[in-house]
Amino acid sequence: MALITPSSRFLRDPLDKRISPSNSGEVVVVGIPWDWSTSGRPGARYAPSRIRDWIYKFTSHAPGSLEFKCSLVDLGDVKVAPGDYKLTSTRIVEAAKIAYNRGKIALFLGGDHSITRWTVEPLTGDSLGLLVLDAHYDVRSVEEGLTSGSWLWDLYLAHRGRVYAAIIGLSDFQNPSYSLERVIEAGFKTVPRLKLFDGLEYAMEAIDWLKEITAENYYISLDIDHLDISYAPGVNSQNPLGMTPWESITILRKAAETLKPKIRGLDIVELVPDLDVAGITTAIASKILLYTLTWILDGCSEA
Hints:
Arginase, Chain A; 9 helices; single chain; alpha/beta
């Protein structure tokens, strides 16, 4: 045994296998370190690498759940052009096309929420159903500059009649009043956080509604600021009295069981690692991703 070896682990258990990327597989990972659309607390550009650190710490074993036997292909990060939204968005769309063609599901690690406008673009053929967990409607208009709070409205305007969205976890006192008028115009379903205090059945009904539209493709977008500030301090816009991780994974399990096998993509956005307290937000977000992938793909048990 060598006396000097490069290693980051002090626990030397050769049978303790961790999740790691491979050359081919069911899950295709793409990082998108873009946060130039953030008007609040920047730093989401650093999230992809921090999330990877956590995902690759996990093992495949999940007592009481499915084993995660899926293979991950990590394509690395999109080459962001700092401050250049047009060039970067073009690259995001092209990277998303590659990801959808390489595996069963694409996992996008943001970045601010504006990336979702472009990661879903290749899926907007006949119809697209979106499940969004978010404290915000993201249907803003600004008189100048960029905002990650407009991506859903921009998507609706570009693909009227082909995009359907259910937004769960909307926070009180944190959205402009005209937002509700816009989502009604777009025909989207909304489930405010306050409704969830009465029970999760309202979220389940929204997922059933998404299934009934029988979209060609489905996509799940997780803005981590849907979680309460105690679980997600490291975000662009903190959310007092937001959702709990247990509510989130219950909703996501229902979505996975209801909408598969048409779920093509999944993203996590608005995580700001340098503002995170003891890595709480990153750790919780990463485990939520792993649960969701496991349920969507049935653990890849037939692979």
